Amino acid sequence: MEDSELDELVASLTPRESGGGVRTYQNTVSVACPACGEPFDDLVVCEDDLTSLELSMVLDLCVTTHDGDVLLFTHK
């Protein structure tokens, strides 16, 4: 994913949380997932090399990377 594509994507999302090497954004406008083309629910950006995610529900995930960060697109 190019820098401009990620910047445009994040600008369309609602920031939720940031800390511990993880940033989350909510997709409130039904932007399409770059991996599968379907609208996604949340974007989780993992900035650290080692990150633990505690999921409270079963989710389908699409994954890509950008400048060494892992981008997780959740689908409920």
- Regarding quaternary structure, what we see is single chain
Task: Please bin the fraction of helical residues.
Answer: 10-25%
Alpha-beta classification: mainly beta
Portion in strands: 35-45%
Query: Given the structure, what is the number of helices?
Result: 1
What does the main sheet amount to? Answer: 5 strands, antiparallel
Instruction: Please compute the radius of gyration using only Cα atoms.
Output: 12 Å
pLDDT averaged over residues: 90
Q: What is this structure, in a nutshell?
A:
The chain has 76 residues and is mainly beta. It has one helix spanning 3-11; strands spanning 14-19, 22-26, 42-46, 60-66, 69-75.
What's the helix and strand layout?
Blueprint: H1 3-11, E1 14-19, E2 22-26, E3 42-46, E4 60-66, E5 69-75
Q: Which terms would index this structure?
A:
mainly beta, 76 residues, 5-stranded antiparallel sheet, 1 helix
Structure commentary:
It is a single chain. A hairpin with a 2-residue loop joins strand 1 (about 15-20) and strand 2 (about 20-25). The model has no long low-confidence stretch (mean pLDDT about 90). This protein is mostly beta strands and about 80 residues long. The chain is about 10% helix and about 40% strand. It has one helix spanning about 5-10; strands at about 15-20, 20-25, 40-45, 60-65, 70-75. Strands 1-2-3-5-4 form a 5-stranded antiparallel beta sheet, with helices on one face. It has 1 helix and 5 strands. It has one domain. It starts with a helix and ends with a strand. The protein is globular, with a radius of gyration of 12 Å.
